[in-house]
Amino acid sequence: MNYFMPTRLFTGNGCIAQHQDALAALGTTCLVVTDRVAAKASGALDDVQRALGDCGIAFVTWDGVTENPPVASCIDAGRLAAGSGAQFVLGIGGGSSLDAAKAISVFAANPTLDEAGFYALAWESSPLPIVLVGTTAGTGSEVTKVSVLTDAAARKHSIHDDRLYAALAFGDSRHTHTCPPSVTLSCGVDVIAHAAESYFSRKADDISRAFAVRAIRQAMGPLAAAAAGDELTPAQREQLYDASILGGLAINTTGTCFPHNVGYYLTENYHVPHGFASVAFLPVMLRCVRAYDEAYAAAFYDEVGTTEDELVSLVEGCLPDLDIHLDDDQVEAALPRWENNGSVKNTRADITTDTIRTILQEMFA
What we know:
Blueprint: E1 8-11, H1 15-18, H2 21-24, E2 29-33, H3 38-41, H4 44-54, E3 58-62, H5 71-84, E4 88-93, H6 95-109, H7 115-119, E5 130-134, E6 146-150, E7 156-160, E8 168-171, H8 181-199, H9 206-227, H10 234-254, H11 258-270, H12 274-279, H13 282-292, H14 294-304, H15 308-318, H16 328-334, H17 342-346, H18 353-364
Parallel strand pairs: 1-8, 2-3, 2-4, 4-5, 5-8
Antiparallel strand pairs: 6-7
Helix pairs in contact: 5-6, 8-9, 8-10, 9-10, 9-15, 13-14
């Protein structure tokens, strides 16, 4: 087994106010990174600003985060942080804001760094300390060393580096109460995707599998309720948020498998939200891994306490209609991106570009 996660994590109602003194240890100035709407609407921005004020920490707010944030905007924000003398970066939001905050901390410490140097991990100075405050239940970015950004060619790429771990992470599920149903579902199925892909990763071990199983067991009930159109209770919101953290802890060890990476293609070209794009390929992954190692797959369903059909039915019940049609030329043009791809090779099954060709043709003919 191999496990490392240096982030100090606080969860529960009011956790920011209860542990605000931990912020003071990071410095007297910071850059707050948010989007323009959700951070305020959720109450998280107010909670953070109150805590920073109580600690005497001066801050500048950058609210330029967009969905699937481009590296270029993170460069701009990093230079703003450097120019304002920020000593740490505090990100508020879902996966886009948290991943952007990680990248901004790199550019703040390396204001002349360009996109190529960022992806090459050619960072002369260590990133500024990072604080992450989650407002959606799904990303798990609060506890991972991963940042997923969009490059200058409009391609999504992930980077993995121990220097991207947050120093502090706060997870108050009350901040997820204002998520609209579509966001709850898209983020919620991302929990299932993270956990299932982690379990069927070639890097899985006893610790990651334990996190993955617990994440799915906790997420299934709230997700089924959300898919049925029910308003989630505060207890269900907390259960789903905790499941997202567990999913993040699982993929932190293993990474993801081919559904996530192939899902990037749907997000880039058809604007399918990340969670839906990833989980769209989960049913076919489950069939592939069962064919590859039936006993291992059976152990997964036994531990989770469900069947393959029930799990597939759950995620398909959360998915919107994906009105996507690909002709053979489009499929062939996309295939080179998955040659020797780490997420494809990480899958516990015989997955090749020929496999992906067949999957895309069958799903989107």
